[in-house]
Amino acid sequence: ERALQLLELNSSVEEDYIQIARCLEATRQECCRLQRDGQRARELLALAEAERAVLEVKLKHARNHVEVEMKKRHRAEAELEKQERKLQLVLEALMREPWASSVLSREQCSVLRTLASQRLKVNLGPGRRSSTVDESCQSLLSHSDISYDRTEDDV
Known about the structure:
Layout: H1 2-96, H2 99-103, H3 106-124
């Protein structure tokens, strides 16, 4: 009897060991799968970080380019205003001179008066900025949307 009890005990222990071995194998396979997933996630993270670094460099170059172009535009607008003032002064001087009517034809005087009045309207009119750039509220890219904060560049 004792031998039969030991054999029954051994068979139940053997089944328990087989069940434990199956659980350990399932756990090992899950760990392998998770390790592969973790490696893939690290690779994707490395790719995303490399792309982010490239985009940050592009953003920095774009900010610098915008800044340079804005400076050029301000210089060009200042030069335009300076030239317009000179032209206005020349037109006013021509219109005031008594000899202008004898030297210039009526048609030329009329053109000068028209130019002088147009220049005056342009100088006094709202929105003096260049009309080649759409600066309205409907513009998709407004210079006010661009951040020139250099603290982000240090990150």
